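Please, structure for the following, as tokens.
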Amino acid sequence: MHSSKTREILLSQQLFTVKVSKPKSKKAKPGVVDFKAELRDAFTIICYDKDKSYTELDWTMCPDGKCPISGTCRFGSAKYKQLDTLIANTKLANIKAMKQLKALVASTKKRK
């Protein structure tokens, strides 16, 4: 078990939605949107704290195509602090994307 907080960065490729748009078909049902997905580089951050572990950031597309370097870092290190910023920025970006998606879906429900 870990005696202090440690973060582990894992890398992978995942299928992500990269574009969401109003359907081109005039026969599309209200509330339906078109999705485009692509395979992209991704990372996740796992935190180990004493005798437990938890996911701090679920699988996320690498920002600007640049993933953090895989491996581990301890609490208080420069890399750990960089991950704090990355986690916060990623969570804010996800909130913004969800608001945009909800607005797009709502706009398709208003179609006549």
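Residues 78-109 form the longest helix (32 residues). The chain has one domain: 6-109.
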